[in-house]
Amino acid sequence: MIKARGGITALGAAALLAAGGNAVSAEESWPKFSGEIGIELQNDFTFDSDDPAAEQNELGTSTGVDLYLHFSENFYINAGLLLEAVRDPGPQEDRVFQDHGLFVEVLTINWENDTFGVYAGKFGPNFSLGYDAAAGLYGTDILGDDVELAEFLGAGGAINLGDSAFGSTVLSASVFTADTTILSESFITNRGRTRQAAGEPGNTESPESFAIALDGEAVPGVEGFRYHVAYAHLGADAAPNEHRIAVAGEWSFEVQEGVTLTPLAEYVRFENAGGNGNESRNYFTASLGLSLQEKWFAALAYTGKDVTVSGGGNGDTYDDQVSLSVGYAFDNGLGLDVGYKHNRSGGIGTSTVGALLTYGFEF
Asked: What predicted TM-score, i.e. pTM, was given to this entire model?
């Protein structure tokens, strides 16, 4: 089982399909400490907006640190820290590494082997594939903000169901509620503490929310294809419960030697979105990634967000975003991506160009 940041995420559950990985060799001594650091430096220049207040330039970082303390081959603690901007910029505000906060995104105690795993603590429930896997510099923008489930307290697990006509499959499930502890705050710049009184879906006194997902790959006759199907129920104390479904597929295949295409598509639906019994949302994301010799990369991505409010006028909206990016992976581990996106939200169209520099290492 490969290390899955945030409990069993969609990517982590798929990784459970392959033996080995997170189960450390029994011949090693314990306890064993290891970690991974991923550094991102990104500059976004927003221009040509129908709302001049949205035109700005921002340079910042999103740096993640994953720490693992293994007490045995199968038993370990995982901590995930993230440093990023925790406040939105003001109108026409240019920022250079401002309003960054450091917070605990994941803190779990885990037991797992090659076929079964359980965990408890703070994590991101397994719901969407596209929020992390859509191709390109800006491919996950809308999904990351709206669809990702993150920073919940609870417990969960996953089981490898083995091979069948549907491929190698993993079934995962979790129960959770919002993190309202001191871990919901951030340091350096404090983003404030999540309060149970806020009452939004997923924020209840006890774990009343749950997610269940099926991840599969190695489907007979479709090499390089993987799929993801999930349902999430977000309980609420003073509002209707929110219901979500997600269906996604990704296929990576070589069209000729050294040239790989990776199309991805995902559909997500919300009922009682945000605790509003009259509101539903539909998200459709499609992306196409191109890899040349695993050095050059290009991506085209689109997300449409349809919001329908029944029983009242002027509540329906359709937002969308299209993006294009290219990148290069250097031999020293650095990655550089440049891209463009056009986003239309609330009838306001905005263009952005940006660059992303990445570097990661393990210890």
From this structure: 0.91
